[in-house]
Structure to design on (402 residues):
């Protein structure tokens, strides 16, 4: 059976997150979205860890449950260190199979930095040092570089990253089997780099509020999900068990194009290169976005299409489709009422966005919303790219009757 997983989220103990990010709310929203396996996030935070230990019931196979939703122990760690004369800032996802393992990891990391000030702790050690600590504490823990293309905090980021995984992970590189593509890049962009061919591309929401869960996700087909079988499916990318990812349109991400938010400058990589990456308004260097960085590091003109790749689905959140179809704001009561009505009738959001034949929704869902869903499924949308921290916008074509 298909299992939709979102392994990178944050609790309310992370900065700039919703105060509602507790197990109860996370579980409720996982069900609304259709997510069967959720990362706990923030296992390095003492208070969140206590809540997890009190609330989660062990499945006995490295996964846990709360209210019918499976959980995996995960955390994101922010590393800042100097290497080869440059300040490096890289976010890394850590997955662990047991509370005992988490306690060993947390114990060793707490000797390095403060774990209680932020659910996503900032540590002044290198990625290799982190790898050493994690794998000394727990051999079967795993490390996945997070949102690998974001300019400021990622392994390939234009501002403080590297040009290859080897530079970042050194002798541990061979243990890295997957990377998180992040909201601003999709699989075809990553396929342009042959150095990534052997890695599995995964997607997660990095949600800071519960309604954003699953905005990106990873799909599995596992008869008996366990920590080991989820990891193994990612490691092997076996098409019977690893079913690919659910993606944002990458242009929607906050760092797709190049630009300056304050100056209102938005440029494609080609336009930015013509200007030597200098902002024509203020004369300072542009924030170079994800697409530009991919173009810089790519060794293929195309996406290497001859290679067989796992599938991916580009989606637009249902509330966004409803909002555009009805011509009202996404945060309005009209949208949340219509959304709740559809979830109640059809079960969950991914079923509505991915699976349900339109005929089954006809008569119950306004025609314009139904057309919106069909357009999104076939990729028929127009997109204004995001840049320098500003989200892009997807425009779903409007047709059909009320
Ligand atoms: Zn991050
Ligand atoms: Zn500027």
């Amino acid at each position: 059976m298909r299992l939709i997983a979102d392994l990178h989220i944050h609790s309310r103990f992370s900065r700039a997150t919703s105060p509602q990010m507790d197990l109860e709310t996370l579980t409720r929203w996982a069900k609304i979205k259709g997510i069967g396996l959720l990362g706990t996030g923030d296992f390095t935070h003492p208070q969140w860890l206590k809540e997890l230990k009190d609330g989660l019931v062990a499945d006995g196979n490295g996964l846990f449950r709360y209210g019918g939703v499976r959980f995996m122990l995960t955390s994101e760690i922010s590393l800042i260190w100097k290497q080869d004369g440059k300040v490096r800032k890289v976010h890394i996802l850590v997955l662990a199979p047991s509370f005992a393992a988490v306690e060993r990891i947390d114990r060793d990391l707490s000797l390095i930095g403060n774990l209680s000030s932020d659910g996503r702790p900032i540590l002044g050690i290198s990625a290799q040092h982190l790898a050493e600590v994690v794998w000394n504490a727990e051999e079967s823990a795993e490390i996945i570089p997070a949102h690998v293309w974001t300019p400021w905090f990622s392994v390939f980021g234009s501002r403080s990253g590297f040009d290859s995984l080897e530079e970042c992970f050194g002798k541990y590189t061979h243990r890295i089997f997957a990377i998180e593509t992040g909201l601003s890049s999709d699989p075809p962009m990553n396929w342009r780099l042959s150095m990534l061919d052997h890695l599995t591309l995964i997607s997660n929401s990095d949600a800071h509020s519960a309604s954003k869960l699953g905005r990106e996700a990873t799909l599995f087909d596992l008869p008996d999900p366990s920590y080991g079988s989820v990891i193994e499916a990612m490691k092997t990318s076996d098409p019977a068990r690893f079913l690919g990812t659910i993606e944002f349109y990458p242009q929607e991400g906050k760092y797709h194009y190049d630009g300056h938010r304050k100056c209102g400058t938005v440029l494609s990589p080609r336009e930015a290169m013509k200007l030597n990456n200098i902002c024509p308004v203020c004369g300072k260097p542009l924030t170079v976005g994800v697409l530009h960085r991919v173009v810089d590091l790519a060794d293929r003109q195309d996406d290497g299409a001859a290679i067989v790749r796992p599938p991916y689905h580009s989606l637009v959140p249902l509330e966004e489709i409803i909002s555009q179809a009805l011509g009202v704001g996404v945060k309005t009561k009209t949208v949340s009422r219509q959304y709740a009505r559809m979830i109640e009738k059809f079960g969950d959001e991914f079923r509505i966005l991915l699976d349900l034949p339109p005929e089954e929704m006809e008569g119950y869902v306004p025609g314009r919303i139904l057309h919106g869903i069909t357009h999104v499924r076939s990729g028929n949308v127009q997109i204004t790219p995001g840049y320098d921290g500003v989200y892009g916008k997807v425009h779903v074509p409007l047709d059909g009757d009320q």
